[in-house]
Design a protein that fits this description.
Layout lengths: L23 H14 L6 E5 L14 E4 L5 H11 L4 E7 H7 L1 H10 L4 E6 L29 H4 L5 H6 L5 E7 L3 H19 L4 E7 L3 H4 L3 H15 L3 E4 L12
Parallel strand pairs: 1-2, 1-3, 3-4, 4-6, 5-6
Antiparallel strand pairs: 5-7
């Protein structure tokens, strides 16, 4: 019998610790599938963050490094500059990347470091108990904003794709989501394109994933996907923000 669906070689057999309904597992699989398809596993190095995905090194079947909170882009820069033949990516949540690690990722993008950032935006601090994050939605209730995020007091949620795309340095920047099958397929395409650009030594690549956090949102998994659709998508549009080529060139790496 022909096998048409199986575990990617780049994904380990270790059960994940993620909460029911969390989409980290989906994104892990997409990363593994793309790396396998492009034949990059033997020269790939991932950088684990501090946050819900701090144990990501247990779930992938290739080399990983652990970075201090927010410093994954600095670690990735060092590895990629020392070994430009390697495929290097960071896997970071919104607290790790958009808060304590904001300067690291902005300057890495501005320098045009040729690694890939996989950014998980679930609008909240997950691992530490559901505090307000830089990406928390206006009015969203968290443990540190029990009356909802007040934009007059703490400002509006930060849109990382828009911020990075505003830099002059060439880059590939795209926001995707994984809350339904159609969006998962689109996310896979964008991720493959990002890793293809790195494989070809083209530019800095950044893919933001809109993700759910049912536990800290206080919602059931299905309700969480609906909340993302109704609340996050209008503020965080799913689209490509920047391409390194001129219009019409290499729009799809497939």
């Amino acid at each position: 019998m022909k096998v048409i669906f199986s575990r990617p070689e780049s994904l380990s057999t270790t059960p994940t610790h993620y909460c029911p309904g969390c989409t980290h597992g989906i994104i892990h699989r997409l990363v593994a599938e793309v790396i396998d398809e492009l034949g990059l596993r033997e020269r790939t190095v991932g950088i684990a963050p501090v946050g819900c995905s701090v144990l990501a090194f247990n779930y992938f079947n290739f080399d990983f490094q652990q970075a201090a909170h927010g410093r994954a882009p600095a670690v990735a820069t060092g590895i990629k500059r020392a070994r430009p033949d390697l495929i290097v990516f960071t896997y970071q949540g919104d607290g790790d990347l958009a808060s304590i690690g904001m300067s690291e990722v902005i300057h890495a993008a501005n320098r045009g470091e040729k690694f890939t950032v996989v950014f998980i935006n679930n609008a909240i601090y997950g691992m530490t108990g559901g505090q307000m994050a830089p990406t928390t939605m206006p009015g969203q209730v968290t443990t540190t904003s029990p009356r909802g995020r007040d934009v007059n007091d703490v400002g509006y949620p930060i849109r990382m794709c828009e911020l990075i795309a505003s830099l002059r340095t060439p880059a590939f920047v795209e926001r995707v989501a994984v809350h339904n099958p159609k969006q998962v397929l689109n996310a896979r395409r964008a991720l493959k394109q990002a890793f293809s650009y790195q494989k070809d030594n083209v530019c800095f690549t950044f893919v933001e994933f809109l993700s759910t956090c049912p536990t800290n949102w206080g919602l059931a998994p299905i309700q969480a996907t609906q909340w993302l659709e109704e609340n996050m998508l209008p503020y965080y549009p799913v689209k490509n923000f920047k391409m390194p080529e001129k219009a019409g060139e290499k729009k799809d790496a497939d």
